[in-house]
Amino acid sequence: MSSTYQYEELPTGKWMRLLKLLPGNSDDQIHLELFTAELKSAPPYEAISYCWGDPNDQDEILCCGQAMYLTKSLATGLKCFRQPEEPRILWADAVCIDQSDDQEKGHQVNMMADVYDHAFAVLVWLGEASTLAAEKAFHLIRKINEHIDSNISESELASHAWTAVRNIPKLGTRSQLFQDDSESEALHDLFGRPWFDRLWVLQEAALASSAWVYYGATSISLGEVVQFAFISVWRPDLLNNFPIRCGLLGEAFEFVFSTYAKKNTWIQEKSILRHTRDHIERSAKPTFQEILHTGRGFGTSKPHDHIYAFLGHPSARAKDGSIGILEADYTLNIEDVYRQLAERLYERDRRLDFLCNASNHDPSAFEQAQSWVPKYHNGGEVASLYRPDWNVDNSAEMDIFIKADFHNSMLHGLSLLFDSITTFTETFKDEDFKSMSTTPVEICWNLEASFTESMDIDELLRDFRWTMVGGGYTGGEVPLQRDFESYCMEKTSSEFCASIQLGNFSSDETPLANGDWERFENEAIINMVGRKFFITKDGCFGLGPSLLQDGDICCVFMGCRMPLIIRPTSTPSHFKLVGPIYIDGVMHGEVVKARVKSLSDLTEITLV
After folding, report:
1. Mind listing the pLDDT tens digit for each residue in 405-422?
2. What per-residue confidence (pLDDT) applies to 507?
3. Strands 46-49 and 531-536
4. If pLDDT is split at 50, 70 and 90, which confidence band does 310 have?
5. What integer is the mean pLDDT of 308-333?
6. How far apart are the two ends of the chain, measured CA to CA in Å?
7. What is the rounded distance in angstroms from the CA atom of residue 119 to the CA atom of residue 334?
8. How many CB atoms lie within 10 A of CB 248?
9. With 50 as the cut, is the pLDDT of residue 508 above it?
């Protein structure tokens, strides 16, 4: 029986281990050798992106002639990548990092972005699969991408990629692309593989110069898979609303893959992806807060990794320009990591926008934990209402009032307490939008009819529409009104249509014949599910977290670009943060401009 392999300490600096996978046949035991290399002078290597799998399901391999135990997931991947006659230089974290040494793990995690950036290719391993199943799934992906590519010109993409994608004609019938049900089933199984839910894959894939997805022994470029997933987010109708779980990957492209500084990557291979990335670079790039929120939907074995997995992202640079606003340190408890990140973000940006991510959903945890500190390992099931153009604190003119003090796990700052919650709906769920009776839109409007003072119906409907979609709709007011009215005619009762004075046709500016009710419904689902619709004491509409209740206070915390819901505690001037909210009519600083003229107009409060 072989002795167990013992790791030797790595030299100080940017050193790494690489593995040499020795040649062999498919059924042979895996033999490999480990050697150290300095990152900048390392030989060409490929990095593996995979899921660890069940830690109790392990295979024994030989490393430098000694026993090493790997999860079956990685062991089967190494067998797939092994060549019959030539060795192959690879990097895989379970082998190349001493997993029993937290100090080494922290150091290597700080280097992780460099490891994948320097690899000449990334090999994505989804796990074992039959060749027939893999070929069916990949054939459908390619077929749909070809249909999409053939309906968009380069000039349309260069002008505005999102608009070009949105304007692709709808499919006439399912048979155009989905002729073979077994292909659809194979595709469903493909996206059910755990790799698509794994947090670390975001950085691993984003930094890959070249990337190939292996499903068993069959492969496809990562660009093909990501374009398919991206289209599924923006145009689910093109996929006949087929229930595949690829939305997370599509969102990851927009907020993560396309926002790293590296240019020569697999994104270049697909025109839609390339032009979308170029558009994002020309416009407002996602902030670190948006990057972290995107990661909430992905899984990891350690909650620390919801921060550490993004330390290589450009938005995580420290104030001096160095990579990593934090150093990865697995010896810290997660509460300390999250609080330390909040303080570092304030030190760097002199802003408190991290509060936009501090949504509380668990009643018991809300009472015990620091309510103002975002918990990035949960909350991914609720979409963010954050938009970089929100400016509720009128920061351009009010930055002199941004002041924060972190003391005894509390946050002290200046605020404007401007309104309170009067009434609200239940928390909306996905199934509420599938109801054959009363739609969520009708439920919210009926709440308005009971509690809001009468005002101009057109103005009321405008505010109501924007609240349903969380304040954002591509194209602005005209398509929003058109699509909302189309939705009402399609999904709501005739009594409701009459109550909002909607007849069988609309104005020339918003003809119902051109309305896209499904688009409005999709946007409403994204923004309303997991939230409550509410009306404030002053009659404003809003969307807020599921824990909000009667009497909660609407607050502008100076330094945060979104309004917050806070709840008084038994200690004067001390509040619990329930979460960020959307309130129509205040998101661009209107309430601050109207009410704050000097320091005396603000109240000093403490979030606990």
Report:
1. 999 999 999 999 999 999
2. 46
3. unpaired
4. very high
5. 84
6. 57
7. 31
8. 18
9. no
48 by Cβ neighbours in 10 Å (0-12 / 13-18 / 19+) ranks as buried
The residue that leads in pLDDT, 365 or 444, is: 444
Type and span of the H or E element at 479: helix 477-491
- Type of residue found at 442: E
The first and second tokens of residue 411, run together, are 């946050």
Structure tokens at 366: 């809300």
One-letter identity of residue 136:
K
Q: Which of 167, 214, 223, 210 is nearest to 195 (CA)?
A: 214
pLDDT of 400 strictly over 90: no
How many C-beta neighbours within 10 Å does residue 381 have?
11
pLDDT value at residue 208: 94
Strand partners, 17: 36
Asked if residue 114 lies in contact with residue 39, where contact means CB atoms within 8 angstroms, the answer is: yes
Which pair of tokens denotes residue 37?
A: 């290399």
Residue 504 has pLDDT above 50, yes or no: no
Specify whether the CB–CB gap between 269 and 149 falls below 8 A.
Answer: no
Three-state SS for 95-125 is HHCCCCCHHHHHHHHHHHHHHHHHCCEEEEE
Rounded Cα gap, residues 11 and 9, in angstroms: 7
Q: How far is residue 589 from each of residues 77, 123, 356, 397, 586, measured CA to CA in Å?
A: 54, 48, 16, 10, 6
Distance CA 416, CA 555 (A): 6
Cβ 357 vs Cβ 337: under 8 Å: no
Provide the 10 A C-beta neighbour count for residue 368.
8
Amino acid 15: pLDDT: 96
Name which of 207, 167, 176 is nearest 49 in CA terms: 207
> 397 falls in which pLDDT band (50, 70, 90)?
confident
Angle between helices 477-491 and 517-528 (to 10 degrees): 100
Look up residue 16 and give its two tokens: 């790494």
Do residues 293 and 276 touch, judged by C-beta distance below 8 A?
A: no
CB atoms within 10 A of CB 75: 20
Q: What is the C-alpha separation between 197 and 299, in angstroms, rounded?
A: 6
The answer on pLDDT for 398 being more than 80 is no
Helices (H), 151-246: 154-159, 161-166, 181-191, 201-206, 222-234
pLDDT per residue over 536-568, tens digit each? 999 999 999 999 999 999 999 999 999 999 999
User: Would you give the DSSP letter of residue 299?
Assistant: B
What SS3 string covers 286-297? CCHHHHHHHHCC
DSSP 41-96: GPPP-EEEE-----TTSEEEEEETTEEEEEEHHHHHHHHHH--SSS-EEEE-HHHH
| 3-state DSSP assignment of residue 549 | coil
Percent of the chain with pLDDT over 70: 94
* Residue 433 phi, psi (nearest 5): -85, -5
Q: How many CA atoms lie within 13 A of 43 on its CB side?
A: 10
* Arithmetic mean of pLDDT, 340-357: 93
Query: What tokens does 330 get?
Result: 């697995």
Q: Are 296 and 380 in contact (CB under 8 A)?
A: yes
Asked if 447 and 425 touch (Cβ cutoff 8 Å), the reply is yes
